[in-house]
Each structure stands twice: as C-alpha cells, then as structure tokens.
C-alpha cells in the first residue's frame, strides 16, 4: 500500500482547482488556463470550467473571477443565467468591460507573486521559478 505524504497528492483535481480559485483577489480575474496551470493541470482549462460548473449555489469560492483567454465571460445555454450573473459580480468588484464585451487582461489579470505560487500544493519547487516567470509576464 502506497502512503502519500504530500497533501497535493491527496487532493482531487477539483479540490486543487478550488484551492487556486479561492486565492484570486477581489477585483482581479484569472483565465481557465491560468487556473489549470496553477493547479498542476497543464492544458486542461476545460477541467476548470467543469469544476466551477459543479459548484453549489452560494459556494464560498469566487468562481466568477475565472474567465476565458480572450478576457470574456464564456457564454453557454447550460449555465442557466450564471453567465449574466458572472458579469454583474465582476462589475460589482470594479472590473470594467470593453465595448467588445471583454476585460482588459493587462489591467485585471491576477499575477500571483512567487510567495502566492508557493502556497499551491500542486506547484512543485522545481516548477516554481519557471511558472512565476511565465505568469508574471502577463
């Protein structure tokens, strides 16, 4: 029997995603791909969408701060109006949308510090410096 000592190994994919999303500060946004990478799920941005879709109404996770790589709220008939709610919640945090219905990623994208990056169980020490450099460049 394999005993896991790392807390990241014990977390499910969705738990790792939620751990990252909970760190997105008020008034900032992250992309699905950015959250996936920080959760150690490279190239699995859709998994982030699936995880956020499964959240119960009223969950204490700021799901609305995650948008697509174009800086837009992803619209879907399966979201039952939460796409409209997402925009409202972002605007309440002071996040502005352009006429093209997008958010300026240069202004509002969350750029975690190396210290913030080190808090994610899924981020290994050997990847920390590399990821910090990529994510801080915006």
Describe this protein's structure.
By secondary structure, the chain is mainly α. The chain has a single domain, classed as Winged helix-like DNA-binding domain superfamily/Winged helix DNA-binding domain (Arc Repressor Mutant, subunit A), CATH 1.10.10.10. Helix content is about 45%, strand content about 5%. It contains eight helices and two strands, in the order ααβααβαααα. Strands 1-2 form a two-stranded parallel sheet. It is globular. The chain starts with 6 loop residues before the first helix and ends with a helix. About 30% of the residues are buried. Mean pLDDT is about 80; it is low at about 1-5 and about 120-125.
Question: Short summary of the structure?
Answer:
By secondary structure, this protein is mostly helical. Helices cover 45% and strands 3% of the residues. It has a single domain (10-137), classed as Arc Repressor Mutant, subunit A, CATH 1.10.10.10.
Keywords for this entry:
8 helices, disordered N terminus, Arc Repressor Mutant, subunit A, mainly alpha, single chain, two-stranded parallel ribbon, 138 residues
Average pLDDT over all residues: 82
Q: Could you list the spans in which at least 5 consecutive residues all have pLDDT below 50?
A: 1-7, 122-126
Return the string of H and E elements: HHEHHEHHHH
CATH architecture: Orthogonal Bundle
Categorize the overall geometry: globular
Total tally of structural domains: 1
Give the fraction of residues assigned to helices. Answer: 40-55%
State the CATH superfamily name. Answer: Winged helix-like DNA-binding domain superfamily/Winged helix DNA-binding domain
Major sheet details: 2 strands, parallel
Tally of separate helices: 8
Number of strands: 2
> At the third CATH level, what is the topology name?
Arc Repressor Mutant, subunit A
Q: How big a fraction of the residues is strand?
A: under 5%
């Amino acid at each position: 029997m394999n005993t896991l000592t790392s807390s990241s190994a014990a977390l499910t994919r969705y738990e790792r995603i939620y751990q990252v999303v909970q760190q997105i500060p008020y008034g900032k946004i992250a992309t699905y791909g950015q959250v996936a990478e920080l959760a150690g799920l490279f190239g699995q941005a859709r998994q982030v969408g699936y995880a956020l879709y499964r959240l119960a109404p009223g969950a204490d996770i700021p799901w609305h701060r995650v948008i697509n790589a174009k800086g837009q709220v992803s619209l879907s008939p399966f979201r039952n109006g939460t796409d409209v709610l997402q925009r409202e919640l972002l605007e309440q945090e002071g996040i502005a949308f352009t006429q093209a219905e997008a958010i300026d990623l240069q202004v509002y994208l969350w750029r975690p510090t190396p210290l913030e990056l080190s808090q994610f169980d899924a981020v290994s020490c050997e990847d920390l410096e590399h990821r910090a450099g990529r994510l801080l460049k915006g």
